[in-house]
Amino acid sequence: AYLRLIQNPNDSVSLLRVINVPGRGIGQRSLSELSRWAKSLGVSEYRALQLVAEQKEDDAETRHPFNSRSRQVLVGFLNLMEEFIARSHKLNLVDLLDFVVKRSGYKEYILNGQDGEERWDNILELRTVAKQYSDLKPQESLAAFLEEAALVSGVDGLENGVNAVTLITLHQAK
């Protein structure tokens, strides 16, 4: 989900999946407030984070609903994501993946969790697949990788031999 968010910062589903993984002290209440406030402004959660970071104390019209501690943690996450996005324009896909895993603390998070070694092996396999995109420009490789991952995961869920009509999108069919 980090890579999807790097590719499209306005992907609210991906943002909400990674904003507190590994844990950053962002509670469910803060996430609910972020979503509610973003919706009231008609912007994505990512844009709402940017507004929180940019906001001056005297801007009462669009005043964010966060205390100073919550604001600090949310802005810290925003800064991390902006660093990832900036690096995505320069690094090849493997180096970007390595950077995200290291900088986010994801490796330690995975290894210290349930089935950590198995989950870490999955990350290493993902890294191996990412090497196939090393001949593309950084932004192109990330987009191609995510597109392929979406196609594979969409097809993986299909059961062979089920006597039913299967609908797929034109995107999946190509």
Question: Could you walk me through the main structural features you see in this protein, from its secondary elements to its overall organization?
Answer:
- By secondary structure, the chain is an all-alpha fold.
- The longest helix is centred in the middle third of the chain and has 21 residues, at 68-88.
- The chain is globular and about 45 Å long.
- It has helices at residues 2-7, 12-18, 28-41, 45-54, 68-88, 93-104, 106-111, 116-130, 138-156, 170-173.
- The model is unreliable at 153-158 (pLDDT under 50).
- Helix 3 packs across helix 4 and helix 5 runs antiparallel to helix 6.
- It is 66% helix and 0% strand.
- The chain contains ten helices and no strands.
